[in-house]
Design brief:
This is TAFA chemokine like family member 5a. One of its GO terms (molecular function) is receptor ligand activity. InterPro entries: Chemokine-like_TAFA (IPR020350), TAFA-5 (IPR040329). It comes from Oryzias melastigma (Marine medaka). The chain is α+β, with helices and mostly antiparallel strands. The chain folds into two domains: about 30 residues; about 90 residues, no CATH class. Helix content is about 25%, strand content about 35%. The protein contains two helices and seven strands. It has a three-stranded antiparallel sheet, with no helix packed on it. It is elongated, with a radius of gyration of 23 Å.
Length: about 120
């Protein structure tokens, strides 16, 4: 009798886990992002000017409460909304590890300076 109860309990637990996985997969349908993640939707590059490349990217983010779409380590990411509100862009850590971050004078964006002196400027519209 005890063995039968254990068998029913294990069967019930297995069915419960299966239902949870099924519900989770239905909630995260194809095309939906998990909370706190971002993906690049479009990326356009314009190299028509000598020694200058203009890149524009559009990202789609599913940020948690208190977060907003931003940039971390040169990739789209969810960041604290206060950083964007105060325009303290370098607090997002937008540059790669070996680059230095500086705010533009009018706080409209930031620059990432590589050790070789190459500068990447990002402006926020």
């Amino acid at each position: 009798m005890q063995l039968l109860r254990v068998a029913w309990a294990l069967t019930g637990a297995a069915i419960c886990c299966f239902l949870i996985l099924l519900i989770h997969s239905r909630l995260l349908q194809e095309g939906q992002l998990a909370a706190g993640t971002c993906e690049i939707v479009t990326l356009d590059r314009d190299s028509s000017q000598p020694r200058r490349t203009i890149a524009r990217q559009t990202a789609r983010c599913a940020c948690k409460k208190g977060q907003i779409a931003g940039t971390t380590r040169a990739r789209p990411a969810c960041v604290d909304a206060g950083i964007v509100r105060k325009k303290q862009w370098c607090e997002m850590v937008p540059c790669l590890e070996d680059e230095g971050c500086d705010l533009l004078v009018n706080k409209s964006g930031w620059t990432c300076t590589q050790p070789g002196g190459r500068v990447k400027t990002t402006t926020v519209s």
